Amino acid sequence: RVVCVDLNRITSSLLPPLGGFFYMKFAAPAISSQRFQSPLHQSDVFHAIPKTVEHVGIHCLAQQAEQSGQRRAERIGRKSKETASKVWEFLMCSHYRRGSRALSETARTHCMEQIQEAMSRKLHIALTVSLFPCKIRNALKTFASTGTEIDIGEVGALLRMHEVATGISSMYPQGANFAVACDGVRYQRALGGSTAMISGYIERLRKVVRYLGIEPSVELLDEGTLYPKEYLTVEREYYQRVLQLFRGNDPAITGRVNALRKNIALCLDLPEVPLEILRLVFDEQLSQNQLSEHSHDAFKLRQDVVRRSLDATIRYIAANTAMLDCEVIPKAM
Asked: CA-CA distance, 84 to 112, in Å (whole number)?
């Protein structure tokens, strides 16, 4: 038996109402900080990637993650005596988070209660979170062509989870692991994409977990198989509510939509066009009038992206909120 600590709930208090994203630093920092500074180009030169165990010590990465988690847990252990507080401080340390530590008192209390419940009953802790929808097919972000590709970003995220789970387990004998609900179905419903793409991506992630030997730390679930019967009804109700609030210029919802819309636009499944056209579409320095004079194709595609991104953002917020309110992941555990 386990007690779930729902990390989706923790981070929702960092954002405007109606849910939130997970803000732990799972992606490799070097990648996330450099990705948009210079968009990928077909003329870029890349070194050959090692493809055999003999050429790359990838199996050492899991051991290094374990050692890092244990060292960090030891340092936190010197500052706090109570085990639940140690676990909380471990999760909140800057090495694993980006953004402010400030959380609402409700969010902090909720998570501490879950951690304390697990410890009082001597039960395993399952850190639940929604992550890993699919590989975005946008040439400005990735080279993905099928949406099922796995690269160093996913490997780094999985290893970071292994590091967190190992660190907590070194402080708490009953241990901890991540139960990750791969939320591709929510992206699919909001942005489009095939079921085969989502299932293929999850299966490749599971192969990486097995290859790294970190199965005890990371369990990957297909969120689409966890929804209760009432989920779709709740999602539709939230969609209408968010849409109404947005049209009424509600400041919280308008801010939330505008904050997410740019990222959602980059995640849309776009038609195959020359990379130069794609760059023009997402060039914030070009106004609509300037773009129409520069390229009619880019102008039409941007209009389509603007229209689709608004609807997709509202649908994603509604789906994310419905998932939280229906407690999809904790109930599945």
From this structure: 7
Structural element, H or E, at residue 185: helix 184-191
Token pair for 246: 């947005």
Query: Which residue is associated with the tokens 């849910």?
Result: 19
pLDDT (tens digit, 9 = 90+) per residue, 170-212? Answer: 999 999 999 999 988 888 888 877 889 899 999 999 999 998 8
Please write down the long-range contacts of 189-194, taking CB distance under 8 Å and 24 or more positions apart: 189/235, 189/315, 189/319, 190/264, 190/312, 190/313, 190/315, 190/316, 190/319, 191/264, 191/267, 191/268, 191/269, 191/312, 191/316, 192/268, 192/269, 193/134, 193/147, 193/269, 194/147
Give the residue among 149, 137, 126 at the shortest CA–CA distance from 187: 137
For residues 322 and 234, the answer to whether their CB atoms sit within 8 Å is yes
Task: Please give the DSSP secondary-structure letter assigned to residue 228.
Answer: -
CA distances, 179 to each of 29, 188, 202 (Å): 22, 21, 13
